[in-house]
């Protein structure tokens, strides 16, 4: 069961999750989204708004694990709070490491937090490294499919349209992730 669910502004999805998981707490970092949820949550689920509530619940004694899946660096304060509290953290985005990797990992070492990569590339590397001495690994090389432009002449890439960038040949990842993948920014 979930102790707390945290989201930003998608109150419809949060209501769906709250009805399925019956958490003790729901936090919406966007106050307008929190207002839209008032009176709609399951009995016994308390509602808070703002990042401070997310930060506090991430480090709460009742919290066993935090699944950090907020988009971009928005979830960094709450995730860092969980790490500093020594929690087990499932890291489903790269941004915490990209924007604050040194601080993040130092906090994990100091607190004894376990950081478990969930994002596809990180999880794959983590699984490959399992059982190996990390100090013996000098380099990790990640390959990419090349997305929708892998067979395209590089001299024509300047004319790529946004519609072409989101047309990934293998799966629908949503506009942002598709563009990040197509431009090799992920």
UniProtKB/TrEMBL annotation:
Assigned protein family: Belongs to the DXR family.
Annotated metabolic or biological route of this protein: Isoprenoid biosynthesis; isopentenyl diphosphate biosynthesis via DXP pathway; isopentenyl diphosphate from 1-deoxy-D-xylulose 5-phosphate: step 1/6
Keywords annotated in UniProt: Isomerase, Isoprene biosynthesis, Manganese, Metal-binding, NADP, Oxidoreductase
EC number: 1.1.1.267
Domain 1-deoxy-D-xylulose 5-phosphate reductoisomerase C-terminal stretches: 115-186
Protein name per Swiss-Prot or TrEMBL: 1-deoxy-D-xylulose-5-phosphate reductoisomerase
Location of the 1-deoxy-D-xylulose 5-phosphate reductoisomerase N-terminal domain: 3-101
Catalytic activity: 2-C-methyl-D-erythritol 4-phosphate + NADP(+) = 1-deoxy-D-xylulose 5-phosphate + NADPH + H(+)
Molecular function GO labels: 1-deoxy-D-xylulose-5-phosphate reductoisomerase activity; isomerase activity; manganese ion binding; NADPH binding
Matching InterPro entries: DXP_reductoisomerase, DXP_reductoisomerase_C, DXP_reductoisomerase_N, NAD(P)-bd_dom_sf
Cofactor dependence: Mn(2+); Mg(2+)
Coiled coil: none
Keyword Magnesium applies: no
Source lineage: Bacteria, Katanobacteria
BP GO terms, sorted: isopentenyl diphosphate biosynthetic process, methylerythritol 4-phosphate pathway involved in terpenoid biosynthetic process
